[in-house]
Amino acid sequence: MKFQNSPEGAKSIAGGNALGFRYNVSIFNQNEYQMGQSLIRNYVHIVFSTKYRQAFIDDNIEEELFNYLGGVCKNMECNPIKVGGYRDHVHILCLLSQKVTLAKLLEEVKKNSSKWMKTKGKEYQNFYWQNGYGAFSVKPSDIEIVERYIINQKTHHQKQSFQTEYRKFLKKYKVEYDERYVWD
User: What is the CATH number of the domain that holds 153?
Assistant: First the structure.
């Protein structure tokens, strides 16, 4: 194996291995080619529903739940931009932390909020989130559009169901799926 087109200032050393193959390895001048920090800015629009799309998110709990979800995101350094939803699902628009995977964020958001909901009264004791979720990247110039979309959920869902909305997201983002495994 030989690295070609080594940048100026790179040193080359000869190496080998147990099989007797020879190769050249370039060692870069660390001062010139070392990246000092990781710079990340990933906006993500997350969507998931209650188990079996049960209408648990009523007027009595809605605002408090959305604030709680945003708080979990913030505690995980995934700054929430907008959290909203409707009776059977939520939308979270946040800036994903460079320290937390999307899967870990969703695990914590769902686990903590599900436990919290069960403490809010008898009517919420059977509350669960669906197992899956949708997560879609958002370019910075579309942040305000997605915020408005989340704000207008009540009006939006007078015309279409969560399932129809979710299928449209999957189609827009060209996500292949099997209808048998999307819903629980």
Answer: 3.30.70.1290
Instruction: Let me know whether 66 and 155 are in one domain.
Output: yes
Segment 97-135, tens digit of pLDDT: 999 999 999 999 999 999 999 999 999 999 999 999 999
Helix ranges, 23-61 (H): 30-33
CA atoms in the 13 A half-sphere facing the CB of 98: 5
Query: How many domains does the structure of the chain reveal?
Result: 2
Residues facing residue 22 across a β-bridge: 16
Is the whole model's pTM more than 0.90, yes or no?
no
Do 17 and 95 fall within a single domain? no
Q: How far is CA 28 from the centre of its chain?
A: 36
- The total of other beta-carbon atoms located within 10 Å of residue 145's CB is 11
